[in-house]
Amino acid sequence: MRPAHTEGVEGSSSLGSFARRLHGVGPLLGLVALCIGGTLLNPDFATFDNAMNVLTRTSFIGIIAVGMTFVIISGGIDLSVGSMAALIAGSMIWIMNALAHGVGGHTLAPLAIITVGIVLALVLGGLFGLAHGLLVTKGRIEPFIVTLGTLGIFRAVLTWLADGGALTLDNNLSDLYGPVYYASLFGIPVPIWVFLIVAAGGVIVLNRTVFGRHVQAIGSNEQVARYAAIRVDTVKIVTYVLLGLCVGVATVLYVPRLGSATPTTGLLWELEAIAAVVVGGTALRGGEGRVIGTVIGAILLSVIANILNLTSIISVYLNAAVQGAVIIFVAFLQRGRR
Amino acid sequence: MSLAVSFDNIEKQFGPVRVLHGVSFDLAPGRIYGLLGENGAGKSTLMKILAGYERPGAGSVSIDGVVVTFESSRDAEATGIVLIHQELNLADHLSIVQNMFLGHEKKRGLFLDEPAMREDARARLADVGLHKHPDTRVRNLIVAEKQLVEIAKAMLRDARLLIMDEPTATLTPAETQRLFALMARLKDDGVTIIYISHKLDEVERVTDEVIVMRDGRFVSRGLTAETTRQQMANLMVGREVSDMFPDKPVIPANARIAFKVDNAYVPGWAENVSFSVQAGEVFGFAGLVGAGRTELFEGLVGLRTRAAGHITLEGERINPRNPRAAMKHGITYLSEDRKGRGLHVDMALKDNLTMMTLERYAHPLLDAQAERDALKKAVGDFGIRTGNLASRARMLSGGNQQKLALAKFLHPDPRVIVLDEPTRGVDVGAKRDIYFLIHALAAEGRAVIVISSELIELIGLCHRVAVMRGGQLVATLGREHLTEERLIAHATGTH
Predict the structure, then answer these.
(1) Interface A:B, Cβ pairs < 8 A
(2) Where are the alpha helices (H) located in B271-366, listed in sequence order?
(3) What CATH number is given for B257-492 in this structure?
(4) Nearest by CB to A10, which of B14, B40, B388?
(5) Which of A12, A16, A209 is opposite residue B364, by nearest beta carbon?
(6) Nearest CA of chain A to the CA of B478: how many Å?
(7) What is the DSSP letter of A103?
(8) Shortest CB distance from A10 goes to which of B342, B387, B400?
(9) B421 to each of A294, B382, B452, B458, B484, how far by Cα in Å?
């Protein structure tokens, strides 16, 4: 039995909601503190160029993490995103190179070839997500297991495609495709714009659409959602497809950066993406989360790496260790909520 | 061996909310006390203080004249005070015996003494009348059996004062009888029992004295033999509950058939069930726990596999494969498990209300203001008491949660609504509100189906009652045949 004096309980929450609001801005405060620290340690940190550099590097993981936020809020997980990105990158390069050499005597215009590559990346991402969603819902296999399996499959197929080495994009194509990563619009690099659009889309879809509300409802309590006539399976499948599309978009931005895919492409991206979601305040058990938090989480993690690069207090080799410590610390702050 | 308790001016606050405002009363040893009060009256909080789960904000508890402060429920148990929880606290993956000895395992040297524990468990299970092997996993038990395990577990602790919070909510009449016999035996042994229940007929039968609380205060006490049920209810509510049930309007013989089921078959649960409900009718389903009532309707709305049978809704043959299809045809089902299946307790009130019909509020982005307006209207229409419309569903009392759940499952405007145990764990005042609401729904021309284990409720509320036993619909009783005796006879197959 709970106290029926709800009026008072809610009236009380001026303090409670302050604490909750503080929780909401926690990651942001952490990010601000890091930036102040970074500035004090190295004046190069607080420059526009460095900020753009950090944000550009964040955009791959950030875009994937936005998709991951939906999957995690609905109560799922996807461990395969790094391998998936690698396989999509490899497939893109492989197809584009093949087209560049001509098919049956015909050659396509370079721009058309790159368009085909980009469409292929998005289609593959969507299909991989669909496969995950179907295996999780209709196949009734734990998402952890499904995506652990595909994590291995995707990377192995890429390694086989690349014959253990690297798949490198044709030089002519590379020159044409390069601006997708390197060009700027109004002084801001393209990947950052794309990241912004994906993040804004994520915020709106999660908070202002039927689908977003259903995602939260399923993560909060799947049984209640089922009894409330929500199409639980469909919604779950769509979260995985969205994540696959996000991986596709991230890969489209990533390929022109190096112009190649190797067996180590996208290694450990899944951990960085999941870490960004968790640092951003989304509970791993599902039900509640914020896309903005995820964006801040992703930026926070790459700012740490950036500061380590710019300063010599801690070796760059310990980057992952510092990030790991931050994740555990954030989890410590968030423990026992709800 | 016995134990006298004295509460002295107990106060308790959760945040700025005062739940107990200086409660004082004494309990003599070796008696059975009925502790009565609506949800939110402070009964459970007071009992949690007595059993060491909470500490009083002010005031003191004395045991046998000595002021005590329990640091934990273990402290209280060491004194002989044991609380049997209303919400079951068993580890589903462990066996009955492992649960019963959880935290109190018997050891021989370094190792667990399994045979001794099993032996003790077997004896206690026999006491409460649960004929299951002690190694059965708890997740394989039905709710009533789990409740019996909780009681058997409490028996192991050699309680001198036993607090039972709604122990019979899920029990069948036979199991309830056995529990009462056990309580009488414990009382003869000098155990003090505090019995919390919303079922006043049981309180009347089993207790020596009743203590009534209201709004965090002690209101009244009296010998059970000298207090009528009506007086108990009036004291709890603080006003006359002159009439719990609305008058049943007569259904004209030619009223249209709103809902008709022919030969429904839900594998493992219900076979060959046929019935029909007229528009404006309140149609009851009686039966013991496990008779297949819940599962039948879960099958009919597509929550479970339905292997055969025809469903006709307002003359149209339908075949819903999932709850969404059922809802679109105009039938919704409110589960008996309010927190596990009915409401998202961690989500906002408006989110719960609009969950089934969210498309209505999307153009294409959700219109939060329209949702809030709908909530405001529902709060008024259904009499949901809440101070803050932005709060989460878990902040509401049981009765108000149930009203919110009703509002949610009525929000799609169904023509047929199935209510499974609509007043479980709900206080007298809210119960009456819900009964009147059910009749208002029927008066609008809907067909209302009520599944209930409370016979008085079915008799007071329904035009006709179908009785299920072992997955079969064994009888449908019209108004002139509706008596407790007949319902029990059909439900148990003893007529």
Answers:
(1) 143
(2) 293-300, 323-329, 349-354
(3) 3.40.50.300
(4) B388
(5) A209
(6) 31
(7) B
(8) B387
(9) 42, 18, 5, 10, 17
User: Does residue A31 sit within a domain?
Assistant: no
SS3 B417: strand
Closest residue, chain B, to A218 (C-alpha)? B344
Interface residue B369 vs chain A (CB under 8 A) = no
**Does residue A6 lie in a domain region?**
no
Q: DSSP characters for B169-221? A: TT--HHHHHHHHHHHHHHHHTT-EEEEE-S-HHHHHHH-SEEEEEETTEEEEE
CATH of domain B5-237: 3.40.50.300
A110 domain residue, yes or no: yes
CA B302 to chain centre: 25
Q: Is residue A39 part of a domain?
A: no
- From residue A251, alpha-carbon distances to A257, A265, A266, A297, B74 in Å are 10, 10, 9, 20, 57
CA A137 to chain centre: 22
Taking contacts as CB-CB distances below 8 angstroms, the residues of chain B near A8 are 15-18, 387
Q: Which residues of B156-177 are buried (b: 16+ CB within 10 A; e: fewer)?
A: beebbbbbbbbbbbbbbeebbe
Q: Which amino acid is at A146?
A: V
**CB-based contact B386 A5, cutoff 8 Å:** no
**What's the CA gap between A225 and A215, in Å, rounded?**
9
From chain B, the residues in CB contact with A209 under 8 A are 362, 364-366
Residues of chain A contacting residue B16, judged by C-beta atoms under 8 Å apart? 8, 11-12
The residue with tokens 């009236």 is: A11
Structure tokens at B438: 């059910």
CATH of the domain at A89: 1.10.3470
Q: Which residue of B has its CA nearest to A224?
A: B341
Range of the domain at A193: 51-334
Instruction: Please report, for residues A44, B341, B349, the alpha-carbon distance to residue A310 in angstroms, rounded to integers and kept in the order given.
Output: 8, 53, 49
B347 in reach of chain A (CB within 8 A): yes
Query: Tokens for B301?
Result: 């709305």
Q: Considering only CB atoms, which chain A residues are within 8 Å of B385?
A: 4, 6
Question: Which residue spans of chain B are classified as CATH 3.40.50.300?
Answer: 5-237, 257-492
Q: Assess contact for B396 and B384: CB atoms under 8 A.
A: yes
Q: Is B366 an 8 Å CB contact of chain A?
A: yes
Token pair of B275 as six digits:
């019935």
- All residues of chain A having their beta carbon less than 8 Å from the beta carbon of residue B303 are 226-227
Instruction: Give me the helices (H) in A43-189, please.
Output: 48-73, 81-100, 110-137, 143-161, 171-177, 179-182
User: How close A137 comes to chain B (CA, Å)?
Assistant: 15
Let me know if B289 is exposed, middle or buried by CB neighbors in 10 A (0-12, 13-18, 19+).
middle
β-pairing, B331-334 vs B416-420, is parallel
**In chain B, what residues touch A225 (CB-CB under 8 Å)?**
344, 355
Could you list the pLDDT tens digit for every one of the 338 residues in chain A?
333 343 333 334 444 455 555 556 778 888 888 888 888 888 888 888 889 999 999 999 999 999 999 999 999 999 999 999 999 999 999 999 988 887 776 778 888 899 999 999 999 999 999 999 999 999 999 999 999 999 999 999 999 999 888 999 888 888 888 888 888 889 899 999 999 999 999 999 999 999 999 999 999 999 999 999 999 999 999 999 999 999 999 999 999 998 899 999 998 899 999 999 998 888 888 888 999 999 999 999 999 888 888 887 778 788 888 888 888 887 777 765 54
Give how many domains chain A has, as a whole number: 1
Residue B19 in contact with partner chain A when CB distance is under 8 A: yes
ipTM score over 0.85, yes or no = no
Q: How far is A311 from chain B (nearest CA, A)?
A: 44
User: Cβ–Cβ contacts within 10 Å for residue A14, how many?
Assistant: 9
